[in-house]
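> example.struct
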């Protein structure tokens, strides 16, 4: 399941232009939406586990971690925050200028990319192939006491408003390493520019919603799983977000920074195939520049894309791209509003242990 080492595109691959983006309808700084994301996904897990629990395992309650730095959610409407992804292969830099040092952590302007061709008819067949690939049981099954290790490259940006001036600012593409115990009650996070070199603890009395044990408790019948995902996401989604989109996003978030059992991963992809509006995309690029095919869905002019290796159909990462101009989104068509890439996913014997390192 391990991915090849990530790489940063050479600056010669970028084309730089100058522009000033208009202000967003509302300004939600990076980080706040990440906290909302954890709360929503925890509630979705709680409902799923309550509905399908067949053992004495405790239900997953909303997580109260001090600094999760979790990924952005789009269960909130797109107009609530305008995001632009950081440097990735195949992207074109736009923007420029400075803001007087007021956003020291925001180092990049908005980015654009080519928009892949969407094919609604091809989505069921592609998802069926992806599901078969996900059902491969050759990956190691975690044992009690072990941890799930996931390394990734991530970046987010947003519209920064200072008085009557607005511009797109973004985090530099940076590394993220997460360790989580199987029950989700213990873990560690190291994220460049956010936690320091040593990282922070994720130990909590309430388990992480994407923990292995929580995922293992989900139903593997795609129709039953999808019904429960709809019910759970309906309870937490913003009313402006259609329920089909909320369900699609929820499935993607269950797949990203986690290690689902093979049968659960396969069921999640089969469930996604039943959501109206899901399409296949012929080409998409993850945060490290790897090209692949994608499964995607559009909402409010933004297309959320799950990216897979074209040959192995292994999950590579996710991006969100503006594909249609809307009144509530000031970003140009082709702007990448979120980018991520999984660079390694493994089972290790202890927290803070890197794969290949002796315990």
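> example.seq
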């Amino acid at each position: 399941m391990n991915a090849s080492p990530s790489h940063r595109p050479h600056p010669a691959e970028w084309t730089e232009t100058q522009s000033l983006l208009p202000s967003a309808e509302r300004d939600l700084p990076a980080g706040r939406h990440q906290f909302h994301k954890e709360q929503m996904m925890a509630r979705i897990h709680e409902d799923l586990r309550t509905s399908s629990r067949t053992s004495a395992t405790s239900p997953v309650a909303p997580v109260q971690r001090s600094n999760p730095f979790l990924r952005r959610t789009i269960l909130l409407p797109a107009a609530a925050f305008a995001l632009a992804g950081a440097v990735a292969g195949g992207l074109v830099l736009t923007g420029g200028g400075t803001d007087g040092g007021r956003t020291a952590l925001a180092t990049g302007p908005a980015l654009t990319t080519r928009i892949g061709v969407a094919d609604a008819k091809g989505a069921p067949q592609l998802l069926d192939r992806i599901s078969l690939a996900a059902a491969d049981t050759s990956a190691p099954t975690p044992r009690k006491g072990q941890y799930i290790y996931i390394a990734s490259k991530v970046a987010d940006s947003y519209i920064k408003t200072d008085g009557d001036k607005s511009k797109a600012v973004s985090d530099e593409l940076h590394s993220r390493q997460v360790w989580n115990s199987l029950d989700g009650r213990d873990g560690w996070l190291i994220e460049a520019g956010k936690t320091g070199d040593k990282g922070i603890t994720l130990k909590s009395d309430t388990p992480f919603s994407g923990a292995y044990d929580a995922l293992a408790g989900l139903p593997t019948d795609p129709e039953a799983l999808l019904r429960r995902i709809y019910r759970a996401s309906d309870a937490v989604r913003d009313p402006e977000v259609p329920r089909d989109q909320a369900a699609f996003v929820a499935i993607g978030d269950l797949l990203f920074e986690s290690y689902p059992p093979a049968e659960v991963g396969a069921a999640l992809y089969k469930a996604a195939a039943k959501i109206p509006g899901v399409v296949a995309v012929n080409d998409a690029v993850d945060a490290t520049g790897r090209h692949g095919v994608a499964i995607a869905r559009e909402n409010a002019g933004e297309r959320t894309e799950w990216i897979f290796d074209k040959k192995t159909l292994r999950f590579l990462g996710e991006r969100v791209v503006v594909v249609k101009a809307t009144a509530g989104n000031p970003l140009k068509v082709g702007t990448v509003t979120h980018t991520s890439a999984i660079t390694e996913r493994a089972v290790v014997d202890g927290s803070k242990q890197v794969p290949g390192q002796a315990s």
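> remarks
Confidence is low (pLDDT under 50) at residues 1-40, 49-105.
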